[in-house]
Amino acid sequence: MGERAAIEVEDLTQKAPDSDLAVIVRFGSQGRYIEVFKSGVVRLISPAGTVSAQFRELEKRDLLRQSYIQMLLNSGVRGEELERALEAIARVDQRLFWEADVQAGTADLERRTEAHFRAWAEAEGLDYEALSEEDLMALVQRGVKAVRRDG
How far apart are CA 71 and CA 75, in angstroms? Predict the structure, then answer.
């Protein structure tokens, strides 16, 4: 059985926050490494050539999470310390999924609101496309006043 190459994970999100690169994974002294960019692009580099791939958002998060866990293990993190780190990762994942749900819900609400407002404008005989931002805000303010007045 061959000798295993040492794997080194370098997290650049803290070291170089302005860099487009997020993580570099090196495989010993064999001249092979992986570059993971914040955009989700991954480049596999070796003496034989370079291959690039574009990950979707969730795949990118998975790769970064796995790289971080591997970095912890390589650094000797074990036991309770590792358990706390894994719990922190789970909390971040939960927050990210919650934020994605909120963003999707907000986008859906905006679409439904615009559709409702367009239908209302048409029913009122107004040309929605011709209304300026000021016209729209004036209509909203009139509507709010009417609802408050009529209770």
Answer: 6
